[in-house]
């Protein structure tokens, strides 16, 4: 007869205790090679999963605006962002400087740039591009194009201080004495040319106006012998070309000592003008019927604003 067991659903006292004791006291069995490799693989997968949550975001593909936003154009670093630049060749004292400059900057701002390059003070500069560059107009307004040559004439402060003052005073006295003479247009040597009358093909004049030199030669005028003459201002070569039917004289502007002019009586909208090519008045090259609006531009172009006469 079987011994009476514990009722269903009930465990015999001491069974759990024994099981726990056995489990606790049972020594750990060494893993074989297959089990060890499987355990190591599981740990590696857990480690990779953990690192996967810390991976950096993928790099932006080429052309992505977000990636390009941090890349700047080196030419914009100077505050010229969004401004159209033009390539200029600035020529001063026989030296060329290649410069990129905003097309919408004024002549005054260009002078400041030239000052930073050459050390030539803006007030001492004569800047030429098809005539004098106006300080209040932009390069775009005077139609400066890429690759344009900007001619600069002027003296540094040291050059100005080195000027011989007594010589300047003598020249000023000579000019004052000249002003006391009979008007040039009444002198016999000039009357024989002026009495021929105004040339039919002379360029139109604008009385009371001042204009930059035109892009074409000044033509239709007379010289001292009564022949036709034209004046061409080659600013890139810093030369004045005096052309007649027979020949063309190419004169460096630096070789011209002085420029004098006087309105023609009865035709004050035209001038008679002389270029002094040597040390005395005998070297004057006379030109008659120069339109008055170009007189100041011619003097400034040939001599510059800083004269000591």
What would you say about this model in short?
The protein has helices spanning 15-25, 33-52, 65-68, 107-118, 157-161, 165-179, 188-194, 295-303; strands spanning 85-92, 95-102, 125-128, 148-154, 218-223, 228-234, 239-243, 248-252, 258-264, 267-276, 284-291.
Structural class: alpha+beta
Taking Cα atoms only, what radius of gyration do you get, to the nearest Å? 46 Å
**Order of SSEs, N→C?**
HHHEEHEEHHHEEEEEEEH
Return the average pLDDT rounded to an integer: 75
Q: Pick out the low-confidence regions.
A: 1-7, 9-15, 17-27, 60-79
**Total number of strands:** 11
Written account of the structure:
With 309 residues, the protein is α+β, with helices and mostly antiparallel strands. It has eight helices and eleven strands. Strands 8-7-6-5-11-10-9 form a seven-stranded antiparallel beta sheet, with helices on one face. Strands 2-1-4-3 form a four-stranded mixed beta sheet, covered by helices on one side. It starts with 14 loop residues before the first helix and ends in a 6-residue tail after the last helix.
Highlighted features:
single chain; 309 residues; alpha+beta; seven-stranded antiparallel beta sheet; four-stranded mixed beta sheet; 8 helices; 27% helix; globular; disordered N terminus
Task: Outline the secondary-structure elements.
Elements: H1 15-25, H2 33-52, H3 65-68, E1 85-92, E2 95-102, H4 107-118, E3 125-128, E4 148-154, H5 157-161, H6 165-179, H7 188-194, E5 218-223, E6 228-234, E7 239-243, E8 248-252, E9 258-264, E10 267-276, E11 284-291, H8 295-303
Parallel strand pairs: 1-4
Antiparallel strand pairs: 1-2, 3-4, 5-6, 5-11, 6-7, 7-8, 9-10, 10-11
């Amino acid at each position: 007869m079987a011994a009476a067991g514990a009722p269903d659903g009930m465990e015999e006292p001491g069974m759990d205790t024994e099981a726990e004791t056995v489990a606790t006291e049972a020594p750990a069995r060494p893993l074989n090679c297959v089990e060890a490799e499987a355990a190591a693989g599981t740990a590696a997968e857990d480690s990779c999963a953990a690192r996967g949550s810390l991976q950096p975001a993928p790099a932006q593909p080429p052309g992505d605006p977000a990636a390009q936003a941090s890349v700047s154009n080196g030419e914009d670093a100077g505050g010229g962002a969004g401004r159209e630049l033009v390539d200029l060749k600035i020529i001063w004292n026989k030296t060329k400087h290649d410069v990129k400059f905003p097309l919408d900057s004024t002549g005054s701002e260009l002078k400041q740039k030239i000052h930073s390059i050459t050390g030539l003070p803006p007030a001492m500069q004569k800047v030429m591009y098809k005539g004098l560059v106006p300080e209040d107009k932009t390069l775009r307004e005077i139609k400066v194009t890429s690759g344009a040559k900007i001619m600069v004439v002027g003296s540094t402060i040291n050059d100005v201080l080195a000027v011989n003052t007594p010589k300047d005073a003598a020249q000023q006295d000579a000019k004052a004495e000249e002003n006391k003479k009979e008007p040039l247009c009444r002198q016999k040597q000039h009357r024989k040319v002026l009495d021929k009358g105004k040339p039919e093909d002379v360029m139109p004049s604008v009385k009371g106006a001042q204009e930059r030199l035109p892009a074409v030669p000044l033509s239709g005028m007379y010289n001292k012998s009564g022949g036709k003459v034209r004046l061409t201002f080659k600013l890139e070569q810093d030369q004045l070309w005096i052309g007649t039917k027979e020949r063309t004289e190419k004169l460096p502007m630096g070789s011209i000592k002085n420029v004098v002019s006087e309105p023609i009586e009865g035709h004050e909208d035209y001038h008679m003008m002389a270029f002094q090519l040597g040390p005395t008045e005998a070297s004057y090259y006379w030109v008659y019927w120069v339109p008055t609006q170009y007189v100041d531009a011619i003097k400034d172009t040939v001599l510059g604003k800083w004269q000591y006469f």
